[in-house]
Write a structure and sequence with these properties.
Blueprint: H1 3-8, E1 13-14, H2 18-36, H3 42-52, E2 55-56, E3 61-62, E4 66-68, E5 74-76, E6 81-82, E7 86-88, E8 94-96, E9 101-102, E10 107-108, E11 111-112, H4 117-121, E12 124-127, E13 130-132, E14 137-138, E15 143-144, E16 149-150, E17 155-156, E18 161-162, E19 170-173, E20 178-182
Parallel strand pairs: 2-5, 3-6, 4-7, 5-8, 6-9, 7-10, 8-13, 9-14, 10-15, 13-16, 14-17, 15-18, 17-19
Antiparallel strand pairs: 1-12, 11-12, 19-20
Helix pairs in contact: 2-3
């Protein structure tokens, strides 16, 4: 397997692989163009969003600045909004359903490293996919950790550190995040 194939499969891989370095460089140039773009040039911003993201539904919007590793591993549904200064380390799939609201400074971290310091010291890493359901609201400065799945209609409170998966129809918050309230 290539390092890219290992990465996408969630296996240990070397991020310094030339193919992966080139892919990150390519998207970073697109992201820089988005981040530096004129806020009134809506069509240009939309064209960049379509080039950066693997799948971008209708009425998808990103407020710059925005940062990601590859972009191609991010899939978002319809009517999704990313507010200022979001980060997605998309070494594996990061999927957001329809009508997801992402507040400023939200961080999606599917990328992770081995706990063994010898293996980690040799610069190995891997990822665990993140999946966000439909009609989810993610509050400002929330952190979504590797392998998390969030059910439909869930609200993630500002500042939450989400280290595990949660079902639909709950409000979660805290560090680590826990259920604060059931919505049904």
């Amino acid at each position: 397997m290539t390092e890219k194939e290992k990465m996408l499969a969630g296996e240990l891989y070397q991020a310094r692989d030339p193919e992966l370095v080139a892919a990150r460089l390519k998207v970073r140039k697109l992201v820089k163009s988005l981040n530096d773009s004129d806020p009134e040039d809506i069509e240009f911003r939309i064209s960049l969003i379509r080039k950066i993201f693997g799948k971008a539904g209708k009425n998808f919007w990103v407020e710059p600045p925005f940062y990601c590793d590859y972009g191609s591993n991010i899939e978002v549904g319809d009517d999704v909004f990313f507010n200022f200064n979001c980060v997605v380390l998309d070494v594996v799939k990061v999927t957001l359903g329809d009508r997801v609201l992402v507040a400023p400074n939200v961080q999606f971290y599917p990328a992770t490293h081995p706990l063994d310091p010898v293996v980690r010291g040799k610069m190995w890493e891997y990822g665990k996919p993140i999946s966000i359901g439909n009609d989810v609201w993610i509050g400002g400065s929330a952190v979504i950790c590797p392998g998390v799945t969030i059910g439909d209609r869930t609200v993630i409170a500002a500042g939450a550190v989400v280290t595990k998966s949660f079902p639909a129809d709950v409000v979660i918050g805290g560090n680590p995040a826990k259920v604060i309230k059931n919505l049904k």
